[in-house]
């Protein structure tokens, strides 16, 4: 649904500030219906990335394709039309203070030339849907932050977009509003079959609202994939942030495994069934990521050195969804190195 | 002692003239100043449609208009005034220099008010596929309305003071009246009466403007 290919964005040098490369050869694919979280430290280019998708920022190089249309080739009028298929919500909401809540939601329809009565009906219906059916005639200044963002969501969805861009949509909200806005986003994206890109600096937002995640650092994609895959990928910088390692038990020789709750997650069962080792769980942390739960377990394997080695090999090759590249990284992790050392 | 029976009708007449001059030039300042202010904003280097040359020409025109002292402008544009109104004396003639002074003044204030509109709102409108014209009509002007009202109030007050200056060269209105009846006849009472009328006018306009701006702000 959204494809970025070799996208770079350089902001030219200005007086007193040198040129800045915000994005450097970024590739990104978001399939229909996915909720892609884009995370990264501030200055990593994530906000630029969101603005590239609807071409609020024009890339210096590369192509942007949304819903089969290559936006980078469109003229101004065609681009305006294409943007109506891409809703966007903002950290600062960006509602118009001069308009009522209802008129704010009508705005995108008005711009698209939809008739007055149809606009009203659609806007009122959406406001009802986001829980603000009683605030139609209020002005944004009279609403709380969470309510304003709900208006922002209703406004973005009014023209029935296929894609929704969220730029730090919950960063200005308190924890309670954040939770309810994220829950609302999650139900709406599912109900309306929206393809969503969610820019955030909070890993918690990714855990709660996304099914895919991409990590940007200094304008480059460092890590990307489905939550379930990323979390199991040894050496992945996202994995430990999504599912932090438990406090390591002192002085023990441990091996770490990541397990999920689907029927394909048989790694622990197989380990015990196929290998003659005793398995002790020394520590573990459990997280809900999207609609699945994952655990990061630290195990101690007891048995003869040969049995333990065979069991470790089994783990290294049978961690589900571990790609070839990443398997090698397992050996580089300190916990394994101490274990290897102990075995040698 | 002031002969109120003689002075009062004339003072009232002068007040009406001032209201007429200031009112008409204000309407013209709004009609011309808003588009000019919008153009200044849009063509700026960081505007929605940057046009270097247009911006510099407009900027120069506005700056020249604002830097010429009004009393000099009055004399300077006299030929234009005669061309437009057929005379340089009286309140209708004064409308010409008043408008010429007010348009650039108001345009700068309009530009500044529009600049106050949060860039995020413009960005949101762009994300909805708004054209530049739509952004001006639907976002910039409505959102800047409180600032525009404040700018219009400031311009009105400046126009009242300018119009009084026009009295020095026979421009009609309260300034003219104060010079002819107060200054030239050594009747300080009349001058004071004119000052009081001007004060009341400015006070009423300013508080009405403030009240309107507040009501439009919705904050």
Kindly identify the CATH topology of chain B. Answer: MetI-like fold
Reported for the largest beta sheet of chain B, the result is: none
Enumerate the spans of chain A where pLDDT stays under 50 for 5 or more consecutive residues.
Answer: 320-344
Report strand % of chain B: under 5%
Number of domains of chain B: 1
| Assembly of the depicted chains | heterodimer
Structure write-up:
The complex is a heterodimer of chains A (344) and B (219). Chain A has 344 residues and is an alpha/beta fold. Chain A has two domains: 2-225, Rossmann fold (3-Layer(aba) Sandwich), CATH 3.40.50; 243-343, Alpha-Beta Plaits. Chain A contains 13 helices and 13 strands. Chain A has a six-stranded mixed beta sheet, sandwiched between helices. Chain A has a four-stranded antiparallel beta sheet with strand order 2-1-4-5, covered by helices on one side. A three-stranded antiparallel beta sheet of chain A has the order 11-13-12. In chain A, a hairpin with a 2-residue loop joins β4 and β5 (69-70). In chain A, α3 packs across α4 (116-129), α3 (101-111) packs parallel to α5 (145-157) and α5 (145-157) runs parallel beside α6. The longest helix of chain A is centred in the middle third of the chain and has 17 residues, at 175-191. The termini of chain A are far apart. With 219 residues, chain B is mostly helical. Chain B has a single domain (4-217), classed as MetI-like fold (Orthogonal Bundle). Chain B contains ten helices and no strands. Chain B has helices at residues 4-43, 52-67, 70-76, 78-85, 91-115, 119-127, 132-143, 145-165, 173-183, 188-217. Chain B is elongated, with a radius of gyration of 20 Å. In chain B, 43% of the residues are buried. Classes of the chains: A alpha/beta (344), B mainly alpha (219).
């Amino acid at each position: 649904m959204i494809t970025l290919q070799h996208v770079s964005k350089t902001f030219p040098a200005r007086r007193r500030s040198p040129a800045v490369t915000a994005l450097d050869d970024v590739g990104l694919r978001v399939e229909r219906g996915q909720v892609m979280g884009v995370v990264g430290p501030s200055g990593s280019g994530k906000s630029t990335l969101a603005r590239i998708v609807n071409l609020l920022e024009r890339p210096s190089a590369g192509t942007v394709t949304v819903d089969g249309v290559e936006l980078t080739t469109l003229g101004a009028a065609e681009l305006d039309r294409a943007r109506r298929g891409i809703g966007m919500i903002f950290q600062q909401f960006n509602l118009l203070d001069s308009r009522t809540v209802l008129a704010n939601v009508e705005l995108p329809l008005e711009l698209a030339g939809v008739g007055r009565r149809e606009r009203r009906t659609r806007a009122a219906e959406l406001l009802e849907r986001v829980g603000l059916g009683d605030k139609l005639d209020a002005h944004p200044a009279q609403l709380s932050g969470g309510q304003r963002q709900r208006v922002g969501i209703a406004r973005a969805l009014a023209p029935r977009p296929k894609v929704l861009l969220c730029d730090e949509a919950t960063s200005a909200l308190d924890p309670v509003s954040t939770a309810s806005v994220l829950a609302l986003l999650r139900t709406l994206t599912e109900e309306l079959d929206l393809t969503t890109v969610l820019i955030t600096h909070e890993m918690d937002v990714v855990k709660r609202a996304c099914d895919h995640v991409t990590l940007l650092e200094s304008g480059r994609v460092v890590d990307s994939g489905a939550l379930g895959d990323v979390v199991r990928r040894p050496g992945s910088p996202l994995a430990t942030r999504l599912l932090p390692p438990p406090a390591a038990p002192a002085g023990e020789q441990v091996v770490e495994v990541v397990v999920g709750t689907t029927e394909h997650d048989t790694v622990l069962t197989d380990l015990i069934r196929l290998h003659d080792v005793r398995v002790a769980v020394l520590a573990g942390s459990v997280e809900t990521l999207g609609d699945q739960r994952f655990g990061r377990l630290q195990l101690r394997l007891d048995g003869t050195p040969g049995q333990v080695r065979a069991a470790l090999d089994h783990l290294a090759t049978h961690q589900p969804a571990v790609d070839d590249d990443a398997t090698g990284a397992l050996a580089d992790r300190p916990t394994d190195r101490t274990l290897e050392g102990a075995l040698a | 002692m002031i002969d109120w029976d003689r002075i009062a009708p004339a003072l009232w007449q002068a007040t009406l003239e001032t209201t007429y001059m200031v009112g008409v030039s204000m309407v013209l300042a709004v009609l011309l100043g808003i588009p000019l202010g919008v153009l200044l904003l849009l063509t700026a280097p960081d505007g929605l449609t940057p046009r270097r040359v247009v911006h510099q020409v407009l900027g120069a025109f506005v700056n020249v208009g604002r830097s010429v002292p009004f009393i000099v402008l009055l004399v300077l544009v006299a030929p234009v005034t005669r061309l437009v109104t057929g005379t340089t004396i009286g309140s209708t003639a004064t409308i010409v220099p008043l408008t010429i002074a007010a348009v650039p003044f108001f345009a700068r204030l309009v530009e500044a008010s529009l600049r106050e509109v949060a860039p995020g709102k413009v960005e949101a409108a762009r994300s909805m596929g708004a054209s530049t014209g739509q952004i001006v009509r639907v976002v910039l002007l409505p959102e800047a309305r409180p600032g525009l009202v404040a700018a219009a109030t400031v311009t009105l007050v400046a126009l009242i003071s300018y119009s009084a200056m026009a009295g020095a060269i026979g421009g009609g209105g309260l300034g003219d009246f104060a010079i002819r009846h107060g200054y030239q006849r050594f009747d300080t009472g009349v001058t004071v009466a004119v000052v009081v009328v001007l004060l009341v006018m400015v006070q009423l306009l300013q508080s009405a403007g403030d009240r309107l701006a507040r009501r439009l702000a919705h904050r």
